[in-house]
Amino acid sequence: MTTDLRFSSTTPQSRNVQTSLVKSPISRETLLQRAIVFILFSTVCLGFCAYRLAQLQLVAGPANRELAEQNRTRLVPIRSDRGNILDRNGELIAANRLSRAVYFWPRQQSPEDWQHLAEQLSPLLNVPKEEMLAKLEQAGYTSPLPVRIAQQLSPDAFVALAEFAQQFPGVEILAESNRYYPHGRLASHIIGYIGEATEADMESNPNYPSGMVVGQMGIERLANPILEGHWGNRRVEVDANGQERRILGNEPSISGDSVNLTIDLKLQQVAEQALNNRRGAVVALDVKTGEVLVLVSGPSFDPNIFTRRVTDAEWQQLQGESQPFLNRALQGYPPGSTFKIVTAVAGMQSGKFTPGSILNTSAFINVGGTQFWEHSNQGYGAIGFRDALAVSSNTFFYQVGMAAGPEAIAHWGAMLGIGTTPTLGLEGGNHGLIPTPEEKVELYGEPWYTGDTVSMAIGQGVVQVTPLEMAVMTATIANGGNRVIPHLMMDQTASPEMQPIPTGIDPAAIAVIREGLIATVQQGTAQGLNDGSIPLTGGKTGTSEVLGQTSHSLFVGFGPAQDPQIAIAAIVENGGYGSVSAMPIAHAIYKAYFNP
Q1: What is the sign, positive or negative, of the torsion defined by CA atoms of 62, 64, 66, 72?
Q2: What would the mean pLDDT of 509-531 be, rounded to a whole number?
Q3: Where are the beta strands (DSSP E) in 111-165?
Q4: Minimum mean pLDDT among 14-18, 38-42, 56-60, 92-96: which range?
Q5: Any idea what DSSP says for residue 197?
Q6: Distance between CA 295 and CA 329 in Å, rounded?
Q7: 241: how many CB neighbours lie within 10 A of its CB?
């Protein structure tokens, strides 16, 4: 019998080792949990991508498409021509001419690169680096529109920029229309000047493009909505270097409309030559309509300097002692003997005198122990209004003024336009002043004395009248008693607001005053006008005293004598007698007016 003895090769220790080497099976629950986590994670990731895609495509899609488009296209502004400014006969006073300007495209470079480029271009363009960077910062470095940096590029600068264009990415030279004043200083206080729109202008006009030019003074400012036109633009495709490849679209600019002024260019030129840039003013009006034919203020300035960058030296000169910006035609002056016209009207309208009244004159009159002298230091005997104006008798008008009283003089002065004449909308305009006793106390804190009335009667003391008001006063007498409303634009003449205002002055009073002014030219202080070179006119010289200085020279007049058409007022500061400095200016204007 055979015995089969078999022994197991495994021991308890070896079985433990084998068990540890075999992985335990993963439960279904664990696998399910892991799958859920993976699916959730994938869903979140895909959801985020979908959300971002939707945001980019749907929400920000239009903006992103625009940004992408702007990387290859540019919207280049096309400046409109400003409307021309013409005189009453269609002669050019302000026009336009071709020039070149430098523009920066903010997006083409980083702020740091613009800093470096501005340093390079500053000497070439003659524009401070800080000014260039300030314009870029104001527009924003992400702005898709160009920023104008310099105007009226010099030929040398143009050639240099053109030769090295590749070294100046984002810099472009554009041809444009620039303002031009062919007559330089002529009528500068009327025309004014232009300049880039200020921040306030841009805020009030959101449609203005960068570099928009607007009127800053005078007619350029007053008529800006008419003159400015509408800027256009063209969309161009550019390459990686910013060079234009083709035009994708074009919106043409629309030129501004022209403006016709009432000014007569020929008369304006003659008046400015006669004043010769001295301190003073000249005004000439159409006696029937109030159209301003001449308005001169000296010294003047050249508005052409504002069509480019104004240097510090030029600006300091404009702010200098001569005050070329000051419109002296709208500033008050003591009117001297020209004011005797007002005193004559007040005397006759007060009822104290008639056009035929006669008064005794003398070397002086005594008022409260003070002697008020005749200008000739001797009397003219018994005379009436006509002769009193012809010889410019002080003592005659002292008596008329005291009898009429300051209130009547102030009232009729206002009716003749003093203190009531509009300043034409021009900058720095003031009104004249004929204070009453109550107003003197209020303004100066002093009581009214009889001597104040005496001084007022001959246009001295506290009386102030502007040259424009002197011209209105003269025109009112010349046209028979209707106060004209002065204006500068031809299309205003027919408007109801510009129609002459009846003053109610007695026609007989106006007639005797006109006779007196004509007699002044025929035999009085303005005989220099009666030389046969022009028709007979009427006028009144004046000399207003200035403490410690030479007197101002004044003249007012109208012509022709029998059919008045033009009224003139002129003043030359510290010019001496009216017949010496102011009257020759009027004579020159008359010659140009009557002998075209």
Answers
A1: negative
A2: 97
A3: 147-150
A4: 14-18
A5: P
A6: 7
A7: 9
